[in-house]
């Protein structure tokens, strides 16, 4: 199974004739919704309208009578393989949605330079990686960033990247836990990035 090579196919499954979508594919790297689709593929039915995570966010916001904002101004997400944020970004661009796609990156990850400055496509960022790093997010020790081979991230659909110091992400994770939300390091990175985006919004 190539967890990076199938990310481009995510939106092909967006528009379903039926809310009962049968699955016969396996891909763990594209979106959470597709992962769920794989998990129930042994005979179950997919109960939602789409397999794109952002579509489901929009559906839930539309259905929530209390929620005044029906289309998010921002989508903030840390990346491991980059499949989820890229799938969401392609969906947003394809349908002309005004949501800004923001990658929350870790301190020693090369995703910031890869997305913003087109670096690390022909060179490794492994020497820049400082252990232990943030578990499961960021990119560094794996060598060159090659779309479809070592990463699923699509720089063309990401509007902004915010690099967060590891100590700040860890502190944010601790604050979340103190508040009763058992988030990990990616939650900390996402929280700090979201706070930065909110504080600089016009």
From TrEMBL:
One of its GO terms (biological process) is cysteine biosynthetic process. Residues 1-24 are annotated as: Disordered. Residues 8-20 have a biased composition (Basic and acidic residues). Residues 48-191 form the Tryptophan synthase beta chain-like PALP domain. InterPro entries: Cys_Synth/Cystath_Beta-Synth, TrpB-like_PALP, TrpB-like_PALP_sf. SUPFAM superfamilies: Tryptophan synthase beta subunit-like PLP-dependent enzymes. Gene3D superfamilies: 3.40.50.1100. It comes from the Eukaryota. PANTHER family: CYSTATHIONINE BETA-SYNTHASE (PTHR10314). This is Tryptophan synthase beta chain-like PALP domain-containing protein. It comes from Ancylostoma ceylanicum.
């Amino acid at each position: 199974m190539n967890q990076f090579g199938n990310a481009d196919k995510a939106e092909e499954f967006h528009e379903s004739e039926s809310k009962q979508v049968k699955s016969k594919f396996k891909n763990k790297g594209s979106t959470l919704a597709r992962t769920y689709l794989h998990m129930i593929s042994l005979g179950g039915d997919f109960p939602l309208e789409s397999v794109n995570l952002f579509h489901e966010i929009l559906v839930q916001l539309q259905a929530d009578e209390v929620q005044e904002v029906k289309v998010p101004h921002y989508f903030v997400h840390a990346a491991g393989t980059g499949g989820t944020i890229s799938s969401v970004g392609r969906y947003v661009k394809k349908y002309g949605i005004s949501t800004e796609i923001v990658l929350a990156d870790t301190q020693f990850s090369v995703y910031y330079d890869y997305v913003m400055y087109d670096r690390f496509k022909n060179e490794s960022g492994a020497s820049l990686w400082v252990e232990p790093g943030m578990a499961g997010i960021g990119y560094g020790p794996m060598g060159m960033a090659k779309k479809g081979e070592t990463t699923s991230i699509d720089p063309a659909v990401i509007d902004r990247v915010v690099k967060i110091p590891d100590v700040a992400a860890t502190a944010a994770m601790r604050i979340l836990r103190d508040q009763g939300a058992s988030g990990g390091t990616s939650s900390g990175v996402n929280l700090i990035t979201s706070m930065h985006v909110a504080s600089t919004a016009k």
